Amino acid sequence: MKILTTIANYGIKNKDYLNILLREYHSMQHDVDIIVLSDIPKELGNGIEVAVGLPSKNPWSLPFGHKKLFAERAGNYDLFIYTEDDILITEKNIRAFLEVTQVLPKNEIAGFMRYEVDPSSQDSPVRWFPDVHGHFHWVPNSVKSIEEYTFASFTNEHSACYILTKEQLKKAINSGGFVVGPHEGRYDLLCTAATDPYTQCGFTKVICISHLDDFIVHHLSNKHAGKVGLSRDDFRKQVEMLMSIGLDNKNRKQLIKTETKWNKSYYEPCRDDILSLVPPGAQNILSIGCGWGLTEANLVEKDIRVVGVPLDSVIAACAKAKGIKVTTPDFDESMEFMAKERFDCIIFSEILQSISNPVKVLSRYTRLLTADGVIIISAPNFNYFKRWRELLSDRFSKRGFDRSGFHFTTEKVIRGWLKKAGIKDVHVVYGVKKNYRWYAKLSLGMLKEFLASKLLFIGKP
Question: Residue 285: is it exposed, middle or buried by C-beta count within 10 angstroms (0-12/13-18/19+)?
Fold first, then answer.
């Protein structure tokens, strides 16, 4: 089998990683030709072609250079690999890719996820999955089995690499979305170069979760380990739930369907600002839009009973492991499940902006409050001065939930929702970061809303 591999390599900083990649490709039983995309001339030894130059004036455009090379040599190779210079694709990965490609539909590509090794772990280095962060998540209703393989889609398509067969490359080229100039889309410039086959060439990236070890690639820098992403244990809980979905064909629902950067983080850090608003003595708390549950787990540790309406059944596995009682990720079904329950506090953390009808949801759930119960809301503030420029961009020029996938939450907007939902005794807390609090104080509070990245509300019906 003939393989063409292109590796994007800036300067000399990642020289050691690049050498590891080169050794790996040289050791393969296949006939592998290697082209290194570089911004400066380099001598990398016999058999290594170095393509020097940027596709555009933008210094981050270097990775896009592989597309023209692939198109020019599309008929000369059986397999095409693009990778950044610190992503180790092994012969095992290639063999697994070829095997599952035989059973996948023509419009689906077997993709990879990155892992890192956390050397700071006490007992032995553990794997860390940096691509699993923020609003990125597994899609429960994407799980399917074909022969002995089970596949699922993950919403973060970036893994700094991809593999295409000759037929897949030709289809990508014919789509008109592959041989294009450097550009940004759903991802930044560097990531877009590695995701265009999925985002604009008609393919869907799927991960083979039943043989996951064959479809993870080592991010050699390990720079995110222990900082960004998910630990091996939490990652395994999610994969086990996905496999369960594949077996019984249940638990495929998602609480919200929109996919924007303003969606709630599935891996939200513990929110001390929200915890500070929980009334003393509260013993029964409901969390709407529960992610992996760090904030809720803090309450559980205080012997408070917490019920979570999860974002989906996959992330619910992480919350459940922390002692949180989870319902179905569905507004109607969760209400039926809790019809006879009453809560001292209901938390809506970073979720209302992603719900098409927030007034309806607020009105329904506040019926579950006790006589002295409170509702706590946290939401992004779109009057925050640092968001003005982004809101004026073309992406957000057309307002409205149906077009943007989220509500532009401001103090006025949320107060309006609360009033319509029958919640009138409302107090607002401005989430002003430390470096801006002096300016807020200097303005006698008049600039608080414009300096606050988040808005928190506490109210009673």
Answer: buried
Among left, alpha and beta (phi > 0; psi -120 to 50; other), residue 198 is alpha
From CA 377, how far away is CA 312, in angstroms rounded? 20
pLDDT in tens, 397-409: 456 787 778 888 9
Residue 289 has pLDDT above 90, yes or no: yes
Q: How many CB atoms lie within 10 A of CB 88?
A: 16
Tokens of 133: 């962060």
pLDDT at res. 211: 97
SS3 letters for the chain? CEEEEEEEECCCCCHHHHHHHHHHHHHCCCEEEEEEEECCCCCCCCCEEEEECCCCCCHHHHHHHHHHHHHHCCCCCCEEEEEECCEECCHHHHHHHHHHHCCCCCCEEECCEEEEEECCCCCCCEEEECCCCCCCCECHHHCEEECCEEEECECCCCCCEEEEEHHHHHHHHHHCCCCCCCCCCCCCHHHHHHHHHHHCCCCEEEEEHHHHHHHEEEECCCCCCCCCCEEHHHHHHHHHHHHHHHHHCCCCCECCCCCCCCCCCCCCCCCHHHHCCCCCCCCEEEEEEECCCHHHHHHHCCCCEEEEEECEHHHHHHHHCCCCEECCCCHHHHHHHCCCCCEEEEEEECCHHHCCCHHHHHHHHHHHEEEEEEEEEEEECCCCHHHHHHHCCHHHCCCCHHHHCCCCCCHHHHHHHHHHCCCCEEEEEEEECHHHHHHHHHCCCCCHHHHEEEEEEEEEC
* Cα distance between residue 405 and residue 199, in whole Å: 18
| Nearest CA among 242, 244, 239, 216 for reference residue 129 | 216
Taking only the tens place, the pLDDT of each residue in 98-137 is 999 999 999 999 999 999 998 776 677 889 999 999 999 9
Strand partners, 73: none
Residue pair 451/384 in contact by the 8 Å Cβ criterion: yes
Tell me the angle at which helices 189-199 and 166-175 cross, rounded to the nearest 10 degrees: 100
Q: Given the structure tokens 């924007």, which residue do they identify? A: 260
The Cα–Cα gap between 111 and 104 comes to 12
Both tokens of 4, joined, read: 């063409």
Which residue type occupies 79? L
Other beta carbons within 10 Å of 130: 22
**Phi/psi at 458 (5° precision):** -130, 130
Matching residue, tokens 């690499």: 161
Do 44 and 73 contact (CB within 8 A), yes or no? no
Closest Cα to residue 375, out of 406, 415, 412? 415
Task: List domains and CATH numbers for the chain.
Answer: 2-248 (3.90.550), 272-460 (3.40.50.150)
